[in-house]
């Protein structure tokens, strides 16, 4: 399964993935250490949202393989950075509007399982794609393989979270809170 994937590509993918983890940790640290105003959180959210829209618009314009490769090199670094800037504002919303209340549980579960999703998604997707193999040439089968891969990934991630992560996290000592500094 992994032999068909170029090791150089996998190495190129690792550094931006480590960057993505760094962005999340750094954002979490800054927002835990410094008290940031709601207006600044919203401004960062809006700027990051605009950045994502611009980047996805750029992807749409990529017609050639070289341009698309450049997009992925930039996108793998830029998209996680933008999403990390969006999260503090989203986390500060205390009550969802009633029409969105049904999203609370799936979003909570997905955020709890996110590390397991991060660890398992590539091997699971490659495995499912290998099972579907040549049938993926048909657009419907390709879409079906992606849906099946993501569903399997979510199921595996839930099992890993429930049976491993949650148990290990329950053994951690309580968090110490450091003093915060206000930023407006």
How does this model look, in words?
It contains five helices and two strands. It has two domains: 1-94, no CATH class; 96-172, no CATH class. The chain is globular, with a radius of gyration of 19 Å. The N and C termini lie far apart (51 Å). The chain has a two-stranded parallel ribbon with strand order 1-2. The chain has helices at residues 7-33, 38-61, 65-92, 104-132, 139-169; strands spanning 34-36, 181-183. It has 184 residues and is mainly alpha-helical.
What are the main properties of this structure?
two-stranded parallel ribbon, 2 domains, 5 helices, 184 residues, disordered N terminus, mainly alpha, single chain
Compile the SSE list and pairings.
Layout: H1 7-33, E1 34-36, H2 38-61, H3 65-92, H4 104-132, H5 139-169, E2 181-183
Parallel strand pairs: 1-2
Helix pairs in contact: 1-3, 2-3, 4-5
